[in-house]
Amino acid sequence: MTPLEIPRSIYDAMLAHGRLWAPLEACGIVAGQGDRAVRFYPTENAEKSPTRYSIPPEDILRILREIEREGNQLLAIFHTHPATPAYPSAVDIQLAYYPEAVYLIMSLADPEAPVLRGFYIRGGEVTEREVVVGP
Questions:
Q1: In the chain, where the domains are located
Q2: Tens digit of pLDDT for each residue in 45-65?
Q3: Hey, what CATH class is 4-134 in?
Q4: What's the pLDDT tens digit per position in 97-133?
Q5: Element (H, E) at 61
Q6: Is-contact 81 105, C-beta < 8 A?
Q7: Chain CA centroid to CA 47, Å
Q8: What is the reported pLDDT for 135?
Q9: What is the C-alpha radius of gyration for the chain, rounded to an integer number of angstroms?
Q10: Distances (CA, A) of 95 to 4, 120, 123
Q11: How far apart are CA 27 and CA 20, in angstroms?
Q12: Is the pTM of this model over 0.85?
């Protein structure tokens, strides 16, 4: 499987969104073409929690329509872990409703060294997807 490519500008936008929401979890949706991210849609965390996130349903619908209109696809669901490693929690696994999407998790436990990892979560099983941040 080829790596998931995240352009530096999208990575920087996700990091800025995560830092803005800290110490709460931040979240958003990533659109793409094939294995490359093309746009990040930052969203509100309706949970307003340091350990859980949910994207408001009206935002999901609006963003998915826009992704389709632009000829892109849902590539990833993004959220941060402000104080824990970049690995899906039990709640993340339980609430993973998009098996075709990569779940991007950015740990901000060390604010100076954020860690971004990607996972498929299907039927309660977690499989890592390599993520490469590039130009």
A1: 4-134
A2: 999 999 999 999 999 999 999
A3: alpha beta
A4: 999 999 999 999 998 999 999 999 999 999 999 999 9
A5: helix 57-69
A6: yes
A7: 16
A8: 84
A9: 13
A10: 22, 13, 10
A11: 11
A12: yes
